[in-house]
Write a structure and sequence with these properties.
This protein is of the alpha/beta class. Helix content is 38%, strand content 21%. The longest helix has 22 residues, at 277-298.
Length: 332
């Protein structure tokens, strides 16, 4: 099975210096390694050519963010399976074998995510993906090992192989034919939660996403856009609403959209009370952008969500903030 590891880079020479060696050491015999460069203005490309000449380079004409960056680059990469890997991830020995085995043995599995732990605290799950992703009734994404900002310690409780709803874009494996069948990422997202939309659309077509806990990677997280950055708040709130418009089933649509707008307003008030008004303003801007794009995204609705993984009986907001359930295994 021909596998391509594709690392998206934008002015990330320092990250490449730190993390590319682990990818080469633990992957080069089983996969072809690419760096897809989003028109960097540092000397990333020169660095790769000089020190890692076996790494192939795809140079995009502009920085189109995560979504367009991968869409542009993957048009030029021939492989059966793409591994979309963040530049701030350290991989481990034998991390590829269990994932490739899943693809070989399960033809309906189109998307796979490994266990993602925190590079800075390797005994804890990392925010972006943790032990595999799900969405609740209102379209809020959460993970095994991470509910909102609560991160669990890795006690091997998620060392299994199981179906999930979405895989993290920090380390996402996908069959190339499925990626291109779906038209790749929705470029209107730019970055953040486009992988939730991609996985949602894949399941609408009858494909499965799976988590493989026998494969482990370590993610720095926030290396390209810090958690405290208001632009990240803007993208997360806006794109989550766009996911709802595109993918929530018709019978729940109006209820979920209205509820989300109210809950986002509560989040904005919470930021203001915490003396973080810049994030309140980011949510307001996210809503204006959502209204502006609402009808255009309505037109993107095709097949609606049919999988039982979209848990219509779960509200993460209620369980986390009201009932105090912080861990995945406590959720009802």
């Amino acid at each position: 099975m021909k596998t391509a590891i594709v690392i998206l880079n934008w002015n990330g020479k320092k990250l490449l210096e730190q993390f590319l060696p682990s990818v080469i050491t633990h992957s080069s015999e089983e996969a072809t390694i690419y760096v897809a460069d989003n028109a960097s203005t540092d000397n990333s490309i020169q660095f790769i050519k000089e020190f890692y000449p076996t790494v192939r380079i795809v140079e995009n004409a502009a920085n189109g963010g995560y979504a367009k960056g991968y869409n542009d680059a993957l048009k030029h990469i021939d492989a059966d399976v793409y591994c979309l890997l963040n530049s701030d991830i350290e991989v481990t020995k034998h991390w590829l074998q269990p994932i490739i085995k899943i693809f070989k043995n399960n033809s309906s599995t189109a998307i796979v995510q490994p266990k993602i732990l925190d590079y800075k605290n390797k005994s804890a799950f990392e925010y972006a993906g943790a032990g595999g992703g799900f969405v609740d009734l209102y379209g809020y994404p959460y993970c095994r090992g991470r509910v909102f900002n609560h991160l669990e310690t890795d006690n091997k409780q998620f060392n299994d192989v199981t179906d999930i709803f979405w895989a993290s874009g920090a380390c996402l494996f996908i069959r190339s034919k499925v990626y291109h069948q779906l038209g790749g990422f929705d470029e209107d997202y730019f970055a953040h939660q486009e992988e939730v939309d991609l996985c949602w659309r894949a399941q609408n077509e009858g494909y499965k996403a799976q988590y493989v806990g026998t494969s482990t990677v370590y993610h720095v997280g926030g290396a390209t856009l810090q958690e405290t950055n208001p632009h990240k708040t803007f993208l997360n709130f806006r794109n989550s609403l766009l996911n709802v418009v595109k993918n929530v089933p018709k019978k729940w649509f109006l209820f979920v959209v209205f509820s989300r707008l109210v809950l986002d307003g509560v989040a904005g008030i919470k930021f203001a009370l915490e003396l973080r008004p810049i994030h309140t303003w980011a949510i307001i801007k996210a809503h204006f952008s959502f209204y502006k794009n609402f009808y255009r995204f309505l037109k993107k609705r095709k097949k609606l969500q049919k999988k039982s993984d979209y848990n219509l009986h779960t509200s993460i907001v209620w369980q986390y903030f009201v009932l105090g359930r912080k861990k995945f295994n406590e959720l009802k």
